[in-house]
Amino acid sequence: MTTHMSLLGWLPTELIITIATLLDAPSLVCFESTCKTLRDLVSKTPALKYVLALAARGLCDGPPSTVTAACRLELVKDYDEAWSTFSWSQHLVLDLPSLEAPYVSGNTLVIRKTKEVVRSLIMLSIPSRLRGVPGRQWRIDFHFCVEIFVLDATQDLLMVVQSRDLNNVLVRQLSTGRPHPLSANGGVLHVDQPLRPSLGNSKHEISGDFLGMITKNYKSFDYRLLIWNWKTGNVFVKMVRALPHHPQFFFFFREHLVSKP
């Protein structure tokens, strides 16, 4: 009877590696645990070790480039070393406006360009040699005053509410300021009551496909918690609480919500 090991002996090593590179990390773990031959093959192949190294650290591969898998694997090791020793690969000095706290999402720093009202946002992409992220600075100008904004750089996502139009949330690309191609209704989320924030009590948060906002209605004197799917435009949660009860929430993982009425 022909054994699996004898079949492996007939296959070229290059073909086995090519097949293995098509596997995701969990499948690759099963692949290498099949026998010593395959385990040794994985341990000696940088491209396969790289897949496992990324999965073990919760990282994703970067875009295609001339950097080989072996070099990328070394960068992952350097990344580990930098975190374990807190050794900085680069020092940057940023000129920030006084009394303006920057907003951070991913590797993007956002600064409000303001003279009493906000009409522009300045974005800084923080460079990282280890992650292959180039430095970049750009600016998004609006023809209106910005009342609220919230962002998620990992999805190239920027949500904006205008001061003179509090019934709509504009869904934009962080990189360009244009309507996000995955958003519903041409990049507009509509609500039936104004999204006026309450100073010190307003909260806005993005998690995956969902946008959550807590705002205060000055006419009816209540707080509202709204949760949208920004890709479909559907409102999944609409919670109203009369003053002085202030609802609170946070996203637990990507699609789970914890709320305190």
UniProtKB/TrEMBL annotation:
Protein source organism: Russula ochroleuca
Protein known as: F-box domain-containing protein
Signal peptide region: 1-20
InterPro entries: F-box-like_dom_sf (IPR036047), F-box_dom (IPR001810)
Domain F-box per the UniProt entry, residue ranges: 5-51
Keyword Amino-acid biosynthesis among record annotations: no
Keywords: Signal
